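Handover notes (outgoing to incoming on-call)

Open items:
1. aspartate transaminase: sequence verified, structure written out, both below. Nothing else pending on this one.
2. Nothing else urgent.
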Amino acid sequence: MHPLYQHMATSVFERMSLAAAQHGAVNLGQGFPDFGWPVEILDAAARALKDGSNQYAPSRGLPALREAIAGHYAQHQGLKLGVDQVCVTSGATEALAAAILATVEPGDEVILFTPAYDAYAPLIRRAGGIVREVPLQPPGWRIERAALQAALSPRTKAIVLNNPHNPTGRLFDREELSLVAEAAVSRGLTVISDEVWEHVLLDGQDFTPISAFAGMAERTLKCGSAGKIFSLTGWKIGWLISSPELATLAARAHQFLTFASAPNLQAAVAYGLAEGDGWLRPMRESFSRARDRMTAGLEASGYAVLPSASTYFLCVDLAASGIAIDAEAFADQAVERAGVAVVPLSPFAEHDPPRHMIRLCFAKRDETIDVGVEAMAKARTLFA
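aspartate transaminase structure tokens:
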């Protein structure tokens, strides 16, 4: 048995979702929306299932989808891409796996900004790499030059960048991104950029891809997600974008992970990317309203809520809310005693994790948010 998996705990998302089902609790832990998907894209998938091919798609993706992805980024981010720079994957996590396997060799060091999505570290270790954490400090969660420079070494091979950032809801600014680009260019590093939240922007924010910085286009592996763009997380359609050389390397890794994804879903995503600009603004407005509704309810109950500029997550500082128990204990007891599932931030880092922070998903209907806020109010009376 491989020791990496033999000693690995169940994902915190799976654990809290199972606990929510067991106790009949409202699930504000796992990050999936319960509203907001465009019906037209579902109809396109149904038509493609009935009328199109149901056999293996090309491993790098349907040509129509690869062309739609290239066109989408040309329009929205000014990126000039050929279809040979695009590889369709079974979700963005598989894109990350392919990018890491194509980049990291045994003994290579890879930098993570923590708290970080919990798939990064196991994927790096499975490739034989060594994880080097750069802790981001609340409440600002900023990338600081000194902390980044301290983590770099002659063995550093890559940086994993997640922007916008899960679990904190941060959208890193140009100054922070320039620090990452400067380190990558000066040291010849690859940047694996998880940009799945690039369209889930709140309050009129703008997104800048790391590949747009000088010297970065040829050294960035960008991971994207149709599930996040269209609120269809269960479809698991993602992609990798890079230089032709790096994209080909990642595609070789991808072909022995999942080989190809469902062709009808790929066809529907191609339709959505080509026709779907009209859905982006309403989606952002809906998520902004949901965030504001949850934030107002939590603050009225006495919780200290941190700002969220992107994603559909917000963080609560338990210590600042007058709650002395740590986030793990709060999550375990809140789901059982108060009827609400949340996610502690401590599993998102291994060294000096934020033990007083929890993450909640606000991509929910009003009635779900209201029930969740009521349950959180009950939890505060139990623990404050």
